[in-house]
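SEQUENCE, C-ALPHA CELLS:
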Amino acid sequence: LSLSFTDPMINDTPNLVGGSIFYTFQGASTQYYYPLDIRVVGGSLMWGRRFRWPDDYFRGQWGFQVTQKQYDGDDEDLNLYTGGLTKSVGFNLSQVISRDSRDRPEFTTSGSRVTWSTTFSGGPLGGNEDFFKNVLNMDFYTPLVSKFVLVNSAKLGVISSLASENDSTSIIPYDERFIMGGNGIPYGNMLRGYSDNSIGPVSSSGSAIGGRSMIKFTSELRFALSENPVIYLLAFAEMGN
C-alpha cells in the first residue's frame, strides 16, 4: 500500500516537491530472493531542483525517510541477515545529483546520463540502521552508422557501517547491500548470463548475503527496428563483481 504525491515544477518553478507514506509485506521465496518475511512501514519527504550551472542538464534531489522493518524467519536466517534482530528502525537522508542529456528516453541515440546517489542512515539521526552508501551510474550513448547505437555503461557502489564492529544492535539492512546476477529481481543488480543473485559473498550454505562494494560494466550494440512502438535488437557484453 502506497500513497505518494510529486509536483515536478511547483508553481511553474524548477523546484520539485513530494512525499509518500507506505506499508509493504514481502514474503520469503525461492523464486525471487527474499530470505525473510519482512514488513515495512514508513514515509518520506523530498525536494529537488534543476540547476543552472554548469548547464541545464543537472538536477539535484534531497529526501528524508523514516522506516520501521519487522523481520520474521528461523533463528539461523535471522542471525545471518539481521544479526539476530527482529526489528530495525531507519532514519536516513538521501541525495541524488544527476546529469541527463539524452535526446529521448524511449530509444536514446545520443547523449549521456550520470547519476550519483548518496544515503546516510543512522548515526546522529537515530535508529539502528547505521550505514553510508554511495552509488554511481554512468550511461553513454554513441550514434553509429544507419540506426546502430553503441551504449556503454558502468555502475559502482560502496556501503560502509557507521557503527562499531562490537555494536550488535546496529545493522546494514540486507536489502541495502549489493547482490548481482540474473534478472536482479527484487533488489539486486542484473547481470545477464549468470544465475539469479549468484555473484558476490555467500554463506556456508550458498545463500547470497550481499557485498559492501560492487562494480559492473556493460556494452550494448542496438539496432532500431521501429521507433513507434519502440522495437530494437541488441547484442551485449557485461561483467561485474
Summary: The mean pLDDT is 92.
